[in-house]
Structure formats: C-alpha cells, structure tokens
Amino acid sequence: MRRRVLGSIVVALSAFAVSGVRVIRQDEVGVVRRFGAVRPELWGPGLHWGLPWGMDRVDRLQPGKTRSLTIGDDGQTAAPLSRRPDPEADDVLTGDLNLVTAQVTLQYRVSDPTRFLFASTSIEDALSRATEAALTRAVASRRVDDVLTTGRAEVADAMAALIQSTADRQGLGVSIRAVRLGRVAPPVPVADAFADAARARSDRRQAVSEAEAYRDRTLADARGRSREIADAASAAHDRAVQLARGEADRFSSVLTEAARSPDASRRRLYLEAIAELLPRVDRTVVVDPGEAVDLGLFAGGRGPAESNAKP
User: Fold this and answer.
1) Per DSSP, what are the bridge partners of residue 61?
2) Which pLDDT band, with edges at 50, 70 and 90, does 74 fall under?
3) Can you tell me the distance from the alpha carbon of 105 to that of 95, in angstroms, rounded to the nearest whole number?
4) 105, 107, 108: which is closest to 72 by C-alpha?
5) What is the DSSP string of 32-73?
6) Of 59, 151, 179, 266, which one's alpha carbon is 20 to 30 angstroms from that of 213?
7) How far apart are CA 240 and CA 179, in angstroms?
C-alpha cells in the first residue's frame, strides 16, 4: 500500500514537473507570465522548460501574421464607423465642405507581443477609433473629387502614418502594414446630385479636350499654310532676283559692246527690235528710201502704193 502511495506521489510529481515543458511552433513566439508577472524574455520556436503548470503561463502569438480590420460602409449595409447609432455619423467632411462615406480596411502585424497582449484597451477598438480619426483628418484636407478618384492612394498613405503614430503613442504594439480604401461615395441622399455633378465635370473636360484638339489642328493648318506662302514668296523673290540679275548682266554686256562699237551696237539693237516687233503686226510695207508712204494702208484702205507692198 505504501509503495502504491509513493508511486502515485512520484507519478504526480513527475507529471507536475513535466507540465512545465512548453512547445512553441515555428511561426509563434511565447510571452511568459510567472506568478502573474510578465517575464522580459520571449520564447522563440522550439521546446522550452519552465515552471510547472500554475506557476508559468505562456501566451502564444504569431507576429508574422497579417491581421485585418474593416470598418465603415461596405456598400450593402450602413454600418457606422464606430458602431454609433446615428446614421449620419458615417459621413466624413472633405476640405471643400462635401460629405462622403467610406469603407476602410486596415492591415497590421504584432510588433511588440507584450504590449499587444497587455494593452490597457481593446486593440481592435483602439485601432477602429484611430482609423476613424485618421480618415477624418486625411479627408478634411482634400477636395471631394480627389477623395473619390485620383487622391485615394494619398488618403490611404496619410491615414497609415496617422494610425501608426496613434498606435505608438498608445503603446498598442502593432505595425501598420497597409490601409486600403474600399467603397468611397457620397451619402445616399445626395448621390444623384453628385452623379450629375460628376457627369457635368466629365462633359466639361470633354468639351475642353475637343476645343484644344480643334485649336491644335487649326494652328497646325495655319502654320502649314503660312510656311507654304512663305516658301512661295521666297521662290518668287529668288526668281525675280535672278531675272533682274540676268537683265542687268545683259545690259552690262550691251553697254560694254556699245562702248566698243556704237554703230554695230545700234544696228544690232535695231534688228533685234524689228525681229521682236514684226510678229506682232498684221501687215508690213517695205518702201524705197525717200518714197512717200500712204498711211491709209495701215487704216485698212488701199492706196496707190499698194502695188509696191510686200506681205
């Protein structure tokens, strides 16, 4: 009997001692609390020997796991950002005094397991409040058009920085990995008005684009026509200059020849003039020197000297 009791005690003590063995998986870290006080060192992956059950308590965390928190309107239900009963609490005021509703997905990891486990407040509630405040600040400094369209990435980046600052200040032990804006839209009561305004802005941009395209085409055509006129004028100028130079050279050669042989020059000029003029007249009359000329011949009449005319 005594042996049995002793054996039972030994088995119980052995089991109690073995209960101090802990296994931490590869993707985990262990935070040890000994008699309720948090130990400064973390347990990494592997087999660890601590105090038996009841003396040591080990909380396991996955610091490499990305956690997600989605707040705001998902486009199907009107869930307020902080679960507030006022349906207008979802609305966020933009810098140009317009209202929008937004869905935000926050992705984060555990950066300090001890702080994450023993933060003085709920991590999700704290991050929800920080996200709501960051959304309000980021949107308040931007126009509604930017928030709804091209400025979404800037809003998300600004929110990530603000949320991280708040988390560090509150000692939440998290690292913000990304902020993603989901559905961002005007409130339902004014959605139609926003759509009309967006269409008007789109029509305006299209009209401006078409006007600029027409302007560019018109300017291109005008420049092309201007170049054609300038080229034609330049060509005409060159031809006129070349013709004038040719005439000047011809006159210079005639003047030089006339200076050397005046009589021959006059005769040559006379013959050239006659050769140029004769094809232009309808009737020619050759008379002997000193003989009278009946001018009626040139008026279409027939005079006494017609018998001497040679066509």
Assistant:
1) 29
2) low
3) 22
4) 105
5) EEETTEEEEEEE-SEEEE-SPBTTEEEEEE-TT--EEEEEE-
6) 151
7) 76
Give the number of residues written for the chain.
Answer: 311
How far is the C-alpha of 192 from the C-alpha of 184, rounded, in Å? 15
Backbone angles phi, psi at 263, to 5 degrees: -65, -45
Q: Given this model, what pLDDT does residue 308 score? A: 46
Question: What Å distances lie between residue 172 and 21, 67, 209, 221, CA to CA?
Answer: 30, 14, 51, 67
pLDDT single digits (tens) 217-267: 999 999 999 999 999 999 999 999 999 998 888 888 877 877 878 877 778
Share of the chain above pLDDT 70, in %: 75
Alpha carbon separation from 164 to 110, 174, 283 (Å, rounded)? 12, 8, 113
What is the distance of C-alpha 29 from the center of its chain?
A: 45
Q: Of 109, 176, 164, 98, which is closest to residue 133 (Cα–Cα)? A: 164
Alpha-carbon torsion, ordered 56, 62, 63, 66, to 10 deg: -150
- Interior/surface letters 39-75, b for 16+ CB within 10 angstroms, e for the rest: eeeebeeeebebeeeeebbbbebebeeeeeeebbbee
- Tell me if 78 sits within 8 A of 135, measured CB to CB: no
